[in-house]
């Protein structure tokens, strides 16, 4: 079945079987790619970035930076580019028109048809996409680490990633997700992006977004699901470990805090740019390619520090032409835990301004680090127990990323 994604285009799928690939690969030059480029090759080939079929050329990057669209006018906020060292291009004698093999950790991953080799002013890219060139911004630091030369061209995956447990349980390509949604009978799907182990605040917001997506439906027509779409990419010290994020979200489902038929957990491979509003748009595009109809955006979505107003990522949706994006933002304000109400409260609702407590990650983190069981008003006890179990099984004793976890953790996927 053909599924349609962003820009009204069919979901991109550029994958060769191993026998076809063997014929193609003969005599091709080989270059190795970084973890980020490998993740983005996988995203491109499976259509997470539909309508992109490969890494962008210079005109598209210019257009994305200046107008937030591809050269054909399709809304697109963040350049998807393959950076490569000039010496590598010279050493391998890579030329326009060549097919080259991209390998990752010495395994063959994809074929790239070289359409263009170009230089790009990374400061210009940073200013346009992130709104700053300040090296304190993690997105700036990421782009600064890239090489200055880029190759644009279509990607074809020739070896499929094999995900390790527990990632294998949650990995779904856009096609597989579409098929699952049909199987479940879901007509509306609310995406909840997560990089956290869920506490009751997250749960409350997902439930609120589900109500909001159903506001105009009579009861017998409610066929709405929640897709928890976690982001798996590079980690920083102090982040929750990936395994715990996925398994703890699934725990809410297994313990029936969400009904079996309205909730599922999945993930995407993505290296956060922390680009605030522009990144919110990209997340919306990716989730619309997954088949989602609604997307939750919290306060300071994809932001960092004070680089963006906390609600810039909400406002940007009012600035784009109405039909350019086939997903509806569900905008979420700030929320707290209020001991007087004895529950989660929300900006503009309860009046216990002095008593309400910020539900910050840091506060919850310090409770968890003490291994004291948080109140069930803050975190479901089953989730907390599982979090400690994950710490032992995957986190070398900690539910948060440590130096040891970052250097010794199992890989998310292998290319064989
Ligand atoms: Zn209150």
What does this structure look like?
This protein is α/β, with parallel strands linked by helices and 416 residues long. The protein has two domains: 6-160, Sulfate adenylyltransferase (Roll), CATH 3.10.400; 167-414, HUPs (Rossmann fold, 3-Layer(aba) Sandwich), CATH 3.40.50. It has 15 helices and 17 strands. It has helices spanning 18-25, 35-46, 58-67, 86-92, 122-130, 138-145, 167-170, 174-184, 200-213, 242-254, 277-289, 312-315, 361-369, 381-394, 403-408, and strands at 29-32, 54-55, 82-84, 99-104, 107-113, 116-119, 149-157, 161-163, 188-194, 224-232, 263-269, 294-297, 328-331, 335-338, 343-346, 357-358, 413-415. Strands 1, 2, 3, 4, 5, 6 and 7 form a seven-stranded mixed β-sheet that branches. Strands 11-10-9-12-13 form a five-stranded parallel β-sheet, with helices on both faces. β12 (294-297), α12 (312-315) and β13 (328-331) form a beta-alpha-beta unit. The longest helix has 14 residues, at 200-213. The chain is globular. The two termini are 29 Å apart. The structure holds zinc ion.
């Amino acid at each position: 079945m053909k599924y349609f994604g962003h820009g009204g285009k069919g979901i991109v799928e550029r994958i060769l079987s191993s026998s076809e690939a063997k014929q193609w690969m003969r005599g091709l030059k080989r270059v190795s790619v970084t973890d980020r480029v490998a993740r983005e090759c996988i995203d491109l080939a499976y259509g997470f970035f539909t309508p992109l079929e490969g890494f962008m050329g210079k005109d598209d990057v210019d257009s994305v930076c200046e107008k937030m669209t591809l050269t054909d006018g399709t809304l697109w906020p963040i350049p998807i580019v393959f950076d490569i060292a000039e010496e590598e291009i010279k050493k391998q004698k890579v030329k326009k028109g060549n097919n080259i093999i991209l390998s990752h950790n010495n395994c063959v991953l994809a074929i790239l048809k070289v359409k263009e080799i170009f230089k790009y002013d990374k400061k210009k890219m940073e200013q346009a996409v992130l709104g700053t060139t300040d090296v304190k911004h993690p997105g700036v630091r990421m782009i600064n680490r890239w090489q200055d030369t880029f190759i644009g061209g279509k990607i074809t995956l020739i070896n499929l990633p094999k995900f390790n447990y527990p990632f294998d349980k949650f990995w779904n390509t856009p096609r597989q997700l579409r098929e699952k949604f049909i199987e479940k009978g879901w007509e509306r799907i609310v995406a909840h992006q997560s990089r956290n182990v869920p506490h009751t605040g997250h749960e409350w917001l997902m439930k609120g977004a589900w109500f909001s997506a159903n506001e105009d439906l009579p009861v017998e027509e409610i066929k709405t699901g929640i897709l928890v779409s976690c982001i798996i990419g590079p980690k920083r010290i102090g982040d929750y470990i990936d395994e715990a994020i996925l398994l703890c979200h699934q725990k809410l489902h297994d313990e029936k805090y969400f009904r079996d038929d309205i909730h599922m957990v999945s993930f995407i491979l993505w290296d956060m740019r922390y680009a605030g509003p522009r990144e919110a748009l990209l997340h919306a595009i990716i989730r619309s390619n997954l088949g989602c109809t609604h997307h939750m955006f919290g306060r300071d979505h994809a932001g960092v520090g004070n680089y963006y107003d906390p609600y810039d990522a909400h406002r940007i949706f009012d600035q784009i032409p109405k039909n350019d994006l086939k997903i509806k933002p569900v905008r979420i304000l700030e929320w707290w835990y209020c001991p007087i109400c004895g529950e989660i409260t929300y900006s503009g609702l309860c009046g216990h301004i002095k008593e309400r407590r910020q539900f910050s990650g840091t506060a919850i983190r310090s409770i968890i680090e003490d291994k004291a069981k948080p109140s069930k008003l803050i975190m479901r006890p089953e989730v907390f127990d599982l979090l400690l179990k994950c710490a032992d099984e995957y986190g070398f004793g900690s539910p948060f990323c440590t130096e040891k976890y970052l250097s010794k953790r199992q890989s998310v996927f292998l290319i064989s």
